[in-house]
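Project standup — Tuesday

K.O.: blocked on the structure for the chain from last sprint. Re-posting the sequence here as requested.
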Amino acid sequence: MYLYRPAIIAAIGIAFSAAQGMPCTAAPQSDVNAARHTWIAKGDATGDSLACAQALAGAHMVWKAIQEEDANALLELTLPSLIRAMGGRKAFVATYRKGMDEARAEGVRIVSLVIGDSVQLRRRGGEAYAVIPTVITMSVPKSTKVVVESYLLGFSPDGGRSWTYVNGSDKFSTEAQFRQLLPRLPKSLRLPAQKEPVVTRE
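H.V.: unblocked you, prediction finished:
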């Protein structure tokens, strides 16, 4: 399952905390690898801070939808191009619900989800992109715990006001693969390397 594969990683989301206080790193207005960026409020840092806060708030809504197993809410928070790649809205909902049933059957349970200490924000034209680090801890049968370091890649078509997401630890996990979903993804956006889950057994 591309975005949320519960049988393997249970679910993807973040624990929302102090969005306004989280560090936010912005790209320069131009660089050798990406087209010239434009900024909300003519480069005012407040515009970037608000975009970061909105990205974090949306990621929190992802986690809330997962907690409540609300497939329809999750659908609205998922990158539209990913939904199309999965076969459309009905196919997305069906696949997600099947995955949740498999997770319950396998005894997978989320222990905690936490966000990293920074949000990477980039702009391109009127679009905004964000990388939000996550750490997911799960309990799995025959294991003490499984810890997955990952991230959510967020996309905003309206400069940071509304966001949709794709999980960075699944099929679309390389820059080339992400560019199939987001062709205008700024090259200055640094995507974290995929890490193997850390399994601690009793």
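K.O.: great, moving the ticket to review. Residues 6-200 form one domain. The two ends are 29 Å apart (CA to CA).
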